[in-house]
Amino acid sequence: MMMLLLPHREEEEEGGAAGRRRFPINDNADLLAEVLGRLDGRSLAVAGCVCRLWSAVGRREAVWEAVCHRHVAVGRAGAAGGTRSVVAALGGYRRLYRLCIGPALDRLAGVRRQGPAVSSSSSAARHVSLSLALSLFSIDCYERLGGVGGRQQQPPASLLFLCKPVDVS
Amino acid sequence: MKREHEDAGRMGGDDPMNMGPEIAKGKMVPVMRTGDEMECGVDELLAALGYKVRASDMADVAQKLAQLEVAMSSDDASHLPQIAADTVHYDPSDLYAWLDSMLSELNAPPCAQLLPPTATASRGNGHSSTAAKPSAAAPPRASALHDFKPVVSAASVGRVVCDTEQQSEKILSPRDPKRMRTCSSSSSSSSAKEVASSLKSATEALPVVVVDTQETGVRLVHALLASAEAVQQENLKAADALLKQISMLAASQSGPMRKVAGYFAEALARRIYRHSPLPQADRVALDLLHSHFYESAPYLKFAHFTANQAILEAFTGFRQVHVIDFGLKQGMQWPALLQALALRPGGPPSFRLTGIGPPQPDNSDALQEVGWKLSMLAESIGIDFHFRGFVASSLADLEPQMLLEPEGKRRDRDGVEEAVAVNSVMELHQLLARPGAMEKVLGTVRALRPRIVTVVEEEANHNGRTFLERFTEALHYYSSMFDSLENGGDSGADGELEEQQRHRAMADAYLGRQICNVVASEGTDRTERHETLGRWRGRMAQAGFEPVHLGSNAFKQASMLLALYAGGDGFRVEEAEGCLTLGWHTRPLIATSAWRVGPAADFAL
What we know:
The complex is a heterodimer. Chain A is mostly helical.
């Protein structure tokens, strides 16, 4: 059981009642959500494997929304409420991260790793903007829509360019 | 032992390799135009034999040969840097630059008669051959060449493929240096001469070695161009003979060059044998190829994103908007615009889309399907969406009244008219096949009084007057295109997903169809009449439109999109007078521009 230890100056002096305060974090799902929302995507996904509670909290849209906003550059301060409903309609923040933002960040990190040989002019472009991610997401969502009469559809592939070969997500 | 140029002149006809080894300084030996009678005599003699070289150049050749001999025989690598410093290095992975340099040398205007003194490519009418051995071997064989008009090609000389560090790659391939072919050269002697003069451009390429694949690649391009020229002159036999050579050479290449050569060879074959043009009927397959091209290369995404940005900016403040798409296809452009409109400050407008598409062979209503999908998406994100589809075999069949509502443009509650945007992604160039169609369509567009017209076109000149001009341009363009697909595509080194390979193969087929159309079709069949951005600008200005600058937002978004592609810095987004182009290395391949109706163009229709 995870414990959240608060610093307490009088640890030795106080006895039973005023002793070190312990906060089992699993008792407070919202607090847990706050903490998890500060992770990056990969760590959050890993955290979802810890236990059922963490898995459930780690799937909350609010948590993934915080993660997404932390990792993308939001251009203009758009209507946050409107964004939420649109993203929910397109499939949710978790899916948005998994399909668009995560792979994009991986791709950019890989490019950065390849060395500082990139020109300075393009380095300004090496981040993901929310509008771009949402555009790609909407295209992917559109591709997944079934056709009329159940005609054979192509598997959605517009985001394949972001995938690494071993990624079979 | 210093060798004089007079010596060289005297020995013009002999094998200059008899000169002793000499370590020359690493600088170019200028051509000495002495008034030596002997030299002129020898020159004339050689010219009479059809060998367009001057004896004074032989000295240069010999010097370089001597250098090479010394360098190769000794293990001391100190000579090599000097030799390497004299040579022109080409990076074998940069296919475009290599091809570009070759073609520019081929087409360079005749200038100072400084002849590249080594490996020659004889290029007469109907044959092409490349000498592996430096042309020191040529004079002794001058007598054997009197059947042809050999032409020295600056471009085909072997090149040092590696730089000074990797000397291990130096291979002098002594095998079969020249492939001799006799063929009737009478009909095109004039063209051979003019090509000869154009090839004798000044070049500092003093090559030392030849590497195999470079040589066959060079031969391949030469064969393609020679074949095209033969076709232009109606010398179909020669063209056909070259085709066989082309297919053989293409087999030795790999990667994009092989594909390009294959498609061009096939197209030439179609033209020569007058096969029926590729069936146009199969729209379903065409759509499929198009969507695969969409997946595998960033060009269409770039086009859509930049056009959407322009449309989005033009629609600010309007509560009713109407987009007319000249080529709806799968409607892949519109989800992103819908999403952007849904999130715009002030809330989404009421959105109407009019999609135009070609008639389907099986009478299925592809347009309605696309409209249905888009409306589902729009509904889920909360946009009031209307759709109308128009089937038209040509854009020239459209009339402005048809496109607007029966009662004209919609008006919102304040009486403000709806904002109309016309979007054309690679559709307009097809109108150039029929005279008058372009003017009619631009007139129709003007009559709609749109807020913005977005035009995306291929940045190439495939509508030149002569066939050879078009062929050469197309070879340039599609080489870059295939190169970018190969190298800019995903992780070629890591191995690709099977799906990606499938996409690539389909994308190749999509481009192959275009190549076939440019090369093999004529008249109204030749619909892939790409033109450059400059010409489109002129055309639009003439039709009464004025340019709208695509803002920095579009540029930023395009750059970000390209940064996500694994091709790294191969793709380049550039801005040119308010238009955005996407290219591969130095070559722009697709251009987006935006227009609005100019103030003076208030022609009533």
